[in-house]
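Co-fold these.
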Amino acid sequence: MKQILAEILTIGDEILYGQITDTNSQWISSELDQLGIRVVRKTTVGDTEEAILNAFTEAEARADMVLITGGLGPTNDDLTMPMLARHFNSEIIMNDDVLAHVKDFFERRGRTFTELNRRQALVPAIAEVLHNEMGTAPGTWYERDGKVFVSMPGVPHEMKNLMKTLVLPKLANFFQTPVIYHKLIKTVGIGESFLADKIKDWEDNLPDHISLAYLPSVGQVKLRLTAVGENREELKKDVQDLIDALIPLAGKYIYGYDSTTLEEAVGQLLKAQNKTIALAESCSGGYVQHKITTIAGSSEYFQGGVVPYHNRHKINILGVKPETLEEHGAVSEPCVQEMAEGVRKLFKADIGASSSGIAGPGGGTDEKPVGTVWIAFADGKETITKKLQLTQNRLLNIELTQIAVLNLVRKSLTR
Amino acid sequence: MKQILAEILTIGDEILYGQITDTNSQWISSELDQLGIRVVRKTTVGDTEEAILNAFTEAEARADMVLITGGLGPTNDDLTMPMLARHFNSEIIMNDDVLAHVKDFFERRGRTFTELNRRQALVPAIAEVLHNEMGTAPGTWYERDGKVFVSMPGVPHEMKNLMKTLVLPKLANFFQTPVIYHKLIKTVGIGESFLADKIKDWEDNLPDHISLAYLPSVGQVKLRLTAVGENREELKKDVQDLIDALIPLAGKYIYGYDSTTLEEAVGQLLKAQNKTIALAESCSGGYVQHKITTIAGSSEYFQGGVVPYHNRHKINILGVKPETLEEHGAVSEPCVQEMAEGVRKLFKADIGASSSGIAGPGGGTDEKPVGTVWIAFADGKETITKKLQLTQNRLLNIELTQIAVLNLVRKSLTR
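Predicted complex below.
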């Protein structure tokens, strides 16, 4: 089966100079992916004739389709249309349908139609016009030697509407596309290389039509399985069989799939078990609570929490014993135990969780260097603690502590 | 003066497939822009040998420098190092310094160093190693015929640290870039177009060698002044004169300059006035406290806070009157007043600040639709409140509330 290849070309100085974020190309990628079209390259070039023409020629040589966004305004620095005309040896003509639409578009909004606006209706004669109902710059479609070029406006909502209503159906029809099925497996609490060691045999025995990628981020590793074939349901089953075989090897690190986040996974566990939670965060400074409350509906299981940034608040608000702090200090196992138990009682929650550590850059000692963190989980029956030895970087320590606290809750709820 | 040209190359299937957003290339663009280096192309290719090698060759032909991110993990789908070795006809060798660093990195975290981890220390013999103190994948630097290649890890905080501490200074030195002086003026509490109106005359009279850019982000607008010349001290003085003229026009919106964040500016005010603060956050769910505690040394002025996510905790922990909640509801002026005053007393802080609102997507009513938020500031003498009418988007509402609370504290402290 022939794999259909695509390139995405973004045109505009403002993206090269870092003045705006290109969110279009990620969106286009993921839409093409759903169609089983493989994006092999993304390119951004500026508003110069040579750069644009070279990009057209190179992309046409490599891919079956080239999807272009940007450079369609009516001013002189917008070069996409004239360069497409040159690339396809076509003259530029005034398209009456587009002209009528642009005039109408301005009239409806009570804006004056100027000579400059007429230029939006100039398109290469060879192009098939794709009607842009949300704006004035038309989409255009080109075919040559079994390959396709599509030009679309850079304004995200205009481009997305054109893609969904016209471009994607036309592409699926033009190229008889294979099916690609992806599954993301999300893990926490294990590094990339350790995970790779654990699942080596499983990975070595993947069938030919399924590939694996490791996608690490701070404190987490995602595994991506990609299956290529003809039948989506069969691919889905093949991937599920592989996941079933993976679970005995690494199941305890897997918290979810696809777009599920760790805070969402913990929320789903709490909801399913009909339990509520409260947090006592010292070194993580409220970040765990923030993560939990980004999830819509978290008020069902999140009672609240305290950030006792100084010892006397640990004592007065959470009931940590003064002698615990005197004997062991705030960054200690007994302290996080009492914090987790105390916040659980204060908020009348089923579960209490806590953190106390030295985020840095100051405050480290020989015995407890920067990056030393204790965390705890309490459910009224038992209290589980864990010591972390993190980094020299304050923000990273806060991020890693937040992940570790959520993961401790997750693991404790799935024992 | 010769214009120095750069290309940015991102390596990774996960970006081509649209599964992760490439934020690195925009950041790199804007850093290069500030050095006066012109980015002429951005390219993303996948994890295949041919695509990577072709991208190297093409970029080297067009630009003076090629900045590469990604593809540096220890697994088999990470190809950047071997392809760089092939491109520069160099063999791959084990670098003892990198190996020692990787071993140390694992040991410090109490993790086992495996055979796979050793591969992180394999670098092309021709490369100059750029020490990555934040991770295990080293940066590498290559020179050939007056051109430079730099390879960096794809993990954003590792890449940014390498760029700032090593890559940008080396590039400025290697290419003898002209003197460019930037100043960021940071504003909050006013929209881009309103700010532009207020400072129009000032902007119209900028001298030729100084340009202005508006850089809007969520809830804030940055103004960037860029001066180009030959003498840094002169440029600095010219820019300072312009800022002195700007302050009478827009000074009350300006909270800081350059890398100063709003939470840092508020921290500096508290420190200068020798005051402490405590937070009671309902709809912002701990996010203000998280922002405050990202700043090193915040324990000097941050006492702590409470997230009372349900009404009974507002009553029991913060002392909000039950009749206040019955009569006005939790999202009301009297409620945030009592929350701010209550948390101030609970933590024996000089200042209390609070938030209560409907973050959404659920919970809205005709009278109090999603996006209705009340915030308050209390210092024992008076309590200042503010009502916000925000958006339909939960995450945006949390972000905008956090900014508004910090800005309310800032404004109250600078009355």
